[in-house]
Design goal:
Structural class of chain A: alpha/beta
CATH class of chain A: Alpha Beta
Shape of chain A: globular
Number of helices of chain A: 6
Oligomer: homodimer
CATH topology of chain A: Nucleotidyltransferase, domain 5
Radius of gyration of chain A: 16 Å
Largest interface: A-B, 33 and 33 residues
Strand order of the largest sheet of chain A: 3-2-1-4-5
CATH superfamily of chain A: Ribonuclease H-like superfamily/Ribonuclease H
Mean pLDDT of chain A: 86
């Protein structure tokens, strides 16, 4: 997509939904008035049959290409939890490490957000289901269709979540959207 | 340490005990007769107070420096399990992903081994305690002292484990050491 570079007042965020087989990537520009615009969305894939060291190198190369092409100012990565002793969780954790590493190597700050933080930021409801999140992402970015696959939409949700959460801190005088207010309430509850 | 490059008949293995605060690295040459020689041992450290993206970039840089200086032919990394929902486990998993990535980016094959595989290979006993493993590493490599910290000794144990396990496969006619026989028995039991 040929889009102009980020507006001076906007922050350009790369969101990464880490995974070995499909690593979702989404870049958005978010303005100070909290409006958002799609810059790039896609998926970095690696062959499940390939050796793990080659898969991780492919993912790193794919993420580096997105950073070089779209020049995000910050990288937001989904936080992975070790809830189950399953090898897929470890693969996801390794992919998240690669995303954070690539950010660091490009001198970009990185942040992680939990799935419920992302849901609360985008839909106003921390237990929203995946389809609600994806539909809201399409609405916020004024897209005709929900980005596919789900990992790509999740990466956009992460990028929006990051911009809104950090923007809300930076500009306390701006009014909160209902979703942001819900997130703030959820965070307050979580701190108790 | 100024040591000659690996002998033609030996394999040079880099072992990595992944960790964010202390990432153990050990390089050994292992000959076809299974004798082993220390090439390098050390620890790549990162500041627990630094942002995660910078810590991972430091670890990647440290591992790359060891690969460039010592030219291993293969990289062995401890396999991490998600047994507990603790952030340290995820940090270890991310560091292991970095070690595998760096191997892949240098065109080196990588392998993972579980802690009990390492213990069985080095001491002949899969439930050996850490000190037994470290004492055996010092004995095998004819060192006057156990390498410190423990992460460094563990990285050497991993490298030895990898060379012996893959060497035993490659040269079936060579007699097995007691430790290798114990490992083979343990592996057979694990397959049942």
């Amino acid at each position: 997509m040929a889009l102009p570079r980020s507006r001076p007042s906007a922050v350009r965020v790369l969101g990464v939904d880490p995974g070995l087989t499909r690593c979702g990537v989404g870049v958005v520009d978010v303005a100070q008035d909290r409006s958002a615009r799609l810059v790039h969305v896609g998926v970095v894939r690696s062959d499940p049959g390939a050796p793990i060291e080659e898969r991780l190198a492919l993912i790193a190369a794919g993420l580096r290409a997105v950073i070089v092409e779209h020049g995000p100012q910050v990288v937001a990565v989904e936080r992975v939890f070790a809830q189950h002793n399953r090898q897929t969780v470890m693969g996801t954790a390794q992919a998240s490490g690669i995303a954070l590493l690539v950010a660091g190597e490009h001198g970009l700050p990185a942040a992680t957000h939990t799935p419920s933080e992302v849901k609360a930021a985008v839909t106003g409801y921390g237990s929203a289901d995946k389809r609600q999140v994806q539909a809201m992402v399409a609405r916020i970015l004024r897209l005709d269709e929900v980005p596919q696959p789900a990992d790509a939409a999740d990466a956009l949700a992460l990028a929006l979540c990051h911009a809104w959460r950090t923007g809300a801190r930076g500009a306390a005088s701006a009014p909160l959207t209902p979703a942001q207010r819900a997130w703030q309430d959820a965070e307050r509850l979580a701190r108790r």
